[in-house]
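Practice problem: predict the structure.
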Amino acid sequence: MTNRPDPSRSALLTIDVQNDFTLPGSPHAIPGTHELVPAMAEIAAAFRARRLPVVHVVRLYLPDGSNAELSRRDALAGGARIVLPGSPGSGLRPELAPCPVELDHAALLRGAFQPVGEAEWLMYKPRWGAFFGTGLTGHLRGLGVDTVVVIGANFPNCPRTTLYEASERDFHAVVVPDAVSRAYPRGMDECAEMGALVLGARELIGWLPPSP
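Answer:
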């Protein structure tokens, strides 16, 4: 492992870019996320073109809220339906996928990585961060990854937690503020102080190695 983020050994993590959280008109849409989907899709396409790994990280909330954070369990148990397994709202935004994708909800909930491309997968996370209670660390190590690039929704919760978890597991981290909803300058400064590289979407694509 080098002492700096290595673009040739990087993987992209897209966080919670799902219909319920992003589509205009969804009661659970996170403000500002839909507008950033084109930048997220461009970054995913750049990783795909370079045959670098992409992992689309999704949430799936059971109706009783038993697999959700404590702060959301009452709402789910009270009838809220957010990224419900099997529902259209749980689906990945199609702009980010290499082809039409239907989530294998049962396999994802079991912790499986669902292949959706040559070096591209879906995975489920049970809490804010993508590393907690998942096989992501081993999956990335097995691919020779030492650097993770984080985009998606929404910075104060899941992307920020994922960045901290990546650092705790000795992965280098890159965050892309114009491809992460609800990013703000102080938060980006704090990520940089933690050792993360902060790059705009165009900067990031230029930072990646050339396409083969």
